[in-house]
Specification:
The protein is about 10% helix and about 35% strand. The protein has a four-stranded antiparallel beta sheet, with no helix packed on it. Strands 2-3-4-5 form a four-stranded antiparallel beta sheet, with no helix packed on it. It is mainly beta. The chain has six helices and 30 strands. Strand 2 and strand 3 (about 40-45) form a beta hairpin.
């Protein structure tokens, strides 16, 4: 019904044009949409993962298991599993059916980013701080970690002329970001020296390498089709790169050429980019700026800047584009709020009734001959009874034509007051009585779950509090 109220020319617009809302639950550091686009996962600086419902902007789930800031989030293809990586050197796979921790993997270094396999939720690749990336198989309780190389595979002519100094420099390279291809047969990795490595998942070997830039490759993102990739590097240049079909039979990797399609940069102000994202169709590229509150949107067809989204008066960090709609979300670095940009759609009220017409200015109304006729009360009552006898179908759900995903997991939403707030922590004190939670309440797990649940520790704590109260009362009596 709401679609009929919207101007069809507005629906044809592919990018947002204004800031339309914001959500918050704690200080968000990273965000990620699921594949269907109905939930937005946010990772907070205190290690909590909060999942928002996009339609209601309410909190659907809270996941607690990390003790430090969340670095990256990754959804499974069906939306049931969520992988969170944190600065506490751990990655946790969550089962959103009941919100439990399915697997916990600890590494020997902080995790830059971790990405789930698009088809197998029990396989992911992780990029570590100043260490080699790992391909982790968590199909069993004991994770299997396979180390991947970061040394680029140079062409044959370059390998013949490679001296010892260059070989030592290649050996010191580390991988900063990794991402799976659409089918999951290959991993595309970016190094701190600007190299792009393509790793085969089955053999875990680098089959092709190319030099993309001279700086650090900060981020890599693929479109939904997997045919194009966008990269963000420390040289302040955003690049879009067409990706060939790497799963093609008989493909000779020596003949594959990965070339840059477009380069986006601010030549005048020389701005740096915090984060980049593809649009739902892959026709636009959006980026958040360093020490600025604007979001730049470029069109890939001509490589031109089409829109600058003005946001709040704070710097924006991670930016994400909705997988199916012209809808952009970004988190503020200072406050941790998640800001939402979309299209402001003026409604067409003429769609409510076939004889309703919108006019630009006042016109003289000409009434019909039978418009204000007085009908008998019995006839009016009979019409109302006839309308009440009609059977209404309130159970059948018509499929949405725009939704290309079928048979996906639907996360059950918890109807608990603690998990339904968005701005403040609220707890139920009694029947119909609420109060705000104190800053330290509910965080005993961060100081050690064993001590929080130990009755002896709780008893000793009560004794200390009781003793302090008795001393205060005795001093008051003496005075």
């Amino acid at each position: 019904m709401n679609l009929s109220l919207i101007d069809p020319f507005i629906l044809a617009q592919d990018y947002p044009d204004a800031l339309t809302g914001k959500v918050r639950s704690g200080h968000a550091a990273c965000i990620r949409f699921n594949r269907k686009g109905d939930f937005l996962a946010t990772g907070r600086v205190d290690g909590t993962v909060v999942i928002f419902d996009i339609e209601t902007n309410g909190v659907a789930r809270k996941l607690r298991g990390h003790t430090r800031q969340i670095q990256a989030l990754s959804w499974s293809g069906d939306g049931r599993y969520l992988l969170s990586s944190s600065q506490d050197w751990k990655c946790i796979l969550w089962d959103l059916q009941d919100g439990t921790k399915l697997r916990t993997v600890r590494f020997e270094a902080p995790v830059y980013i971790a990405e789930l396999h698009p088809l197998n939720p029990f396989l992911f690749v992780a990029s570590l701080f100043e260490d080699q990336p790992l391909l982790v198989d968590i199909s069993s309780c004991i994770p299997l970690k396979h180390q991947l190389s970061s040394v680029p595979k140079r062409p044959k002519l370059d390998r013949q002329d490679l001296n010892e100094k260059q070989a030592l420099q290649d050996a010191k390279q580390s991988t900063c970001v990794t991402v799976f291809t659409t089918l999951g047969d290959h991993i595309i990795a970016g190094t701190n020296k600007g190299w792009l490595n393509i790793i085969e998942v089955r053999s875990r070997e680098i089959i092709h390498s190319t030099r993309l830039c001279n700086g650090i490759i900060i981020l890599l993102r693929l479109t939904a089709s997997g045919r194009d990739m966008v990269s963000n590097a420390s040289d302040r240049v955003i690049r879009t790169i067409p990706i060939p079909n790497l799963s093609q039979d008989g493909l000779d990797m020596d003949t594959v050429k990965i070339e840059v399609e477009h380069k986006f940069q601010d030549v005048v102000n020389r701005l740096s980019w915090n984060h980049v994202a593809f649009s739902s169709t892959g026709d636009y590229v959006a980026a958040s700026t360093f020490m600025n509150h604007d979001i730049y949107v470029w069109e890939r067809g001509h490589g031109s800047l089409v829109k600058i989204l003005e946001g709040p008066k704070e710097e924006l960090g991670v930016i994400e584009w909705h997988p199916h709609r012209p809808f952009v979300a970004a988190c503020g670095i200072e406050t941790g709020r998640v800001y939402l940009w979309s299209i402001i759609t003026p409604q067409r009220w003429s769609a409510l009734a076939p004889d309703f017409a919108e006019v630009e200015e006042n016109v003289e109304y000409v009434e019909r001959e039978d418009e204000f006729d007085i009908h008998p009360i019995e006839e009016i009552h009979k019409r109302r009874l006839d309308l009440e006898d009609e059977a209404l179908d309130v159970l059948t759900v018509d499929p949405v034509k725009e939704d290309p995903i079928h048979d996906v997991f639907s996360m059950p939403v918890l109807l608990d007051i603690v998990d339904s707030e968005s701005e403040e922590e609220i707890v139920a004190v009694g029947p119909g009585t609420m109060r705000r939670k104190s800053p330290g309440e509910g965080r005993e797990w961060m100081n050690g779950a064993e001590n929080a649940n130990d009755p002896e520790e709780q008893g000793s704590f009560k004794k200390v509090v009781t003793g302090a109260a008795e001393k205060t009362q005795s001093r008051t009596r003496k005075r």
